[in-house]
Amino acid sequence: MIEEQQNNPLHGLKLETMITELVDFYGWKILFAALKLGCFNTNPTIEASVIFLKKTEWAREKVENFYLYRFKRMPKAVGEQFDLKPRERGFASGIAPRKPMELTLASIAEMQAKASAEYEAGNRRPNSGYSSGKSAGKKPTGGRGTGSGYGSSNSSAQRRSEPRNDSRNDSKMTERSGPGPSTDDNDPWGTKRS
């Protein structure tokens, strides 16, 4: 496993060196478009980005994933490797980094649109009664109360509107578990009782 980790392009790589390589090749605009991290957009500097990425682990892992799979174009992690952090992942000996992926603002927009379309397609559940279109959020129709053999909706509505003659409910309405509200304007919270 240690030999595999040594074959990881991130092994022994300083954060500052990684960001410098990415900025020199892609530039700040491409990095922001691809990663959506504010440190690459608003007054971007390598020093400020290093400080931000040292403090926020999720952002650092996002940049490290980008470095591994877009810049160095290493094979995607599978199985147990996927659960590991990017710096802990190992690659078999003999696997060498390839040329960096050429990215433009247009190609990034296309990839993000494709990814969101695939995400939406994966979230649709056939025959569930819910849809992700304009009617999203509406409950499915059918079921009880629509003449499906369980009784009509009128009879269930009548049952709900009829008052219950239950002695338990009557006793709860008349009993109070504490002092009544204050009627004194000078003591609205009712703290001064005589």
From TrEMBL:
Residues 140-150 have a biased composition (Gly residues). Residues 117-194 are annotated as: Disordered. Pfam families: VF530. Residues 159-175 have a biased composition (Basic and acidic residues). This is DNA-binding protein VF530. GO terms for molecular function: DNA binding. Residues 128-139 have a biased composition (Low complexity).
